[in-house]
């Protein structure tokens, strides 16, 4: 299992006094730890430094471009040798849609929430499918496998997204169990 945890050092009201460390673990063994603060400027780490209208505008721009890339990728699927373009555009679209929420809550908070226990499996499956889609189309040359990974991307992204809506996962599970029984 892969887990990511964050540890805060000094807690101040401003981000410039706050020290965040990212720990990447394999099981219980720490594999990587690095300070996040030197990697990003304070304005990038804290979405609240941007005005509300700026955050909403960039969220809409990023989310809309993600949807546009996904639709464009789907349209390119039907061209000769369009599977590679489909996989790339669909994956870029999902990455853009996923990163759009960074404008609403900030990248650090987004990462923390992505790897909470309730979203850990969905996040890992989603990120793994993003990578495997590109591997299937470019390195392995398996077009059918790339399409399967794109479908899994969609399902994992949907499951991840509804985890932010209270009781949505329970409702979806109840609908599917009632349909199957």
Automatic annotation (TrEMBL):
Membrane disposition: Multi-pass membrane protein
Keywords from the UniProt entry: Membrane, Protein transport, Transmembrane, Transmembrane helix, Transport
InterPro entries (UniProt xref): Vesicle_transpt_Got1/SFT2 (IPR007305), Vesicle_transpt_SFT2 (IPR011691)
One term under GO cellular component: endomembrane system
Pfam families noted in UniProt: Got1
Main localisation: membrane
Localization in the cell: Membrane
Sequence intervals crossing the membrane: 58-79, 85-108, 120-140, 146-167
Lineage: superkingdom: Eukaryota
One GO BP annotation of this record: vesicle-mediated transport
Similarity section: Belongs to the SFT2 family.
Role description: May be involved in fusion of retrograde transport vesicles derived from an endocytic compartment with the Golgi complex.
Name of the protein in question: Vesicle transport protein
Source organism of this protein record: Oncorhynchus kisutch (Coho salmon)
